[in-house]
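Design request, tokens follow.
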């Protein structure tokens, strides 16, 4: 089962990467292969298909002393013929995070809607070598695919980007 839920953890792997700019103008990104569209701040960079993510949006670095570039990434896991419920997947994510990120703490979790589809979200903190990170992971299931959107930031930057990330999450849409 650990292999089955591997891709849900790719978002966790991005804790070593980053997003920190908070541009007010948004730009659209569409991925026809994975069947979604989303908006992101105009001044953020786009990286496609890096480290298992369909796409990663990176905020501008704040200068030479900026040790972590905050980021939002989207990971899609296709289960093919295997059926998985939101409850099963959510439990697997929580268990895998505890195993992969020892010392991490879930500070909040609950319901969310992505593209008008019920999903789950979880906010986690983890101590990295030189800083504390905070992650918001949001996921939902459409057909046989799980769509997971992960926001990772230095804990001190998290609140500054929260409204921007909310806009990003609200803009996420499944396309046909």
């Amino acid at each position: 089962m650990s292999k089955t839920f591997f891709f849900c953890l790719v978002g966790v792997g991005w804790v070593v990467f980053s997003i920190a700019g908070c541009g007010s103008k948004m730009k659209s990104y569409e991925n026809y292969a994975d069947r979604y569209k989303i908006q992101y701040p105009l001044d953020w960079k786009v990286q496609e298909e890096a480290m298992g993510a369909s796409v990663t949006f990176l905020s501008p670095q704040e200068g030479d002393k900026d040790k972590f570039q905050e980021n939002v990434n989207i990971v899609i896991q296709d289960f093919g013929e295997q059926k998985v419920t939101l409850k099963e997947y959510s439990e697997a994510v929580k268990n895998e995070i505890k195993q992969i990120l020892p010392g991490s703490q879930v500070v909040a979790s609950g319901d969310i809607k992505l593209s008008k589809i019920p999903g789950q979200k979880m906010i986690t903190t983890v101590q990295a070598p030189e800083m504390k990170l905070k992650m918001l992971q949001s996921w939902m299931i459409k057909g046989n695919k799980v769509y997971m959107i992960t926001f990772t930031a230095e804990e001190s930057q998290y609140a500054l980007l929260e409204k921007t990330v909310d806009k990003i999450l609200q803009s996420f849409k499944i396309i046909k």
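Comment from the thread starter after seeing the answer: thanks! Strands lie at 26-31, 36-41, 45-48, 55-58, 71-78, 105-114, 117-127, 132-142, 145-154, 173-174.
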